[in-house]
Amino acid sequence: MRKIKIWWLINVFWILLYIVTTLFLCFRQVDATGAIQNYSTKLINIAIISIVFLIIAICQLVIFHFIKK
User: How far apart are the first and last CA of the chain?
Assistant: First the structure.
């Protein structure tokens, strides 16, 4: 039971990190290289971050499957 609570806390952390990262990418005007961020560039950045977090979510589901056993 304790493992599942820890698993939930880790998932809350990942969700909050995803939300903060996405909001940061949405509201920044210029990236670190000095390139101006337009709408399409922001969408590409968010898509890349979403793919990374999707991979993390799949790993978390696999871990949850083994914890439940």
Answer: 11
Q: Could you tell me the pTM of the whole model?
A: 0.85
| 25-49 residues labelled b (16+ CB within 10 A) or e (exposed) | beeeeeeeeeeebeeeebeebeeeb
Q: 6 and 14 in contact (C-beta within 8 Å)?
A: no
Cβ–Cβ under 8 Å, residues 22 and 49: yes
Q: Where are the beta strands (DSSP E) in the chain?
A: none
pLDDT surpasses 80 at 69 = no
Given a contact cutoff of 8 angstroms between Cβ atoms, the answer to whether 67 and 4 are in contact is yes
Q: What is the mean pLDDT of the chain?
A: 93
